[in-house]
Design brief:
The structure is a single chain. This protein has one domain (about 20-95). Helices cover about 20% and strands about 15% of the residues. It has three helices and five strands. The strands form two sheets. The protein has a three-stranded parallel beta sheet, with no helix packed on it. A two-stranded antiparallel ribbon has the order 3-4. The longest helix is centred in the last third of the chain and has 8 residues, at about 80-85.
Length: about 100
């Protein structure tokens, strides 16, 4: 039961990948930048990272108007970059996102 309530004591950092660290000098943050700074965020005491939408979008609603729920916006990297970031294994921090698909 205690594990089901992890969020009550969590320090959640809501992060926009596109405004975080840019590693390829194109002016847009990317998953490689996030991966590079995970140790820093953990050092701040962050225990969970909530990612804002990072899927392909026509950009009419700040990225919330997702056009492809199965693809990462290429400005942020690839699906592989996202996978590496979310599979990052370090005790004490988790990464997640929630996308609500229209039905």
């Amino acid at each position: 039961m205690i594990n089901d309530l992890w969020y009550k004591n969590a320090i959640v950092y809501c992060l926009s990948v596109g405004t975080y660290l840019d590693t390829n000098a194109d002016g847009v943050g990317d998953f490689q930048g996030l991966l590079r700074r995970l140790d820093y965020l953990q050092g701040l005491g962050v225990t969970a990272i909530w990612l804002l939408p990072f899927q392909r979008s026509p950009g009419r609603d700040d990225g919330y108007d997702i056009s492809d729920y199965y693809a990462v916006d290429p400005r942020y990297g690839s699906l592989g970059d996202y996978g590496i970031t979310t599979m990052w294994q370090k005790p004490g921090i988790s990464i997640g996102s929630t996308i609500f698909s229209p039905t």
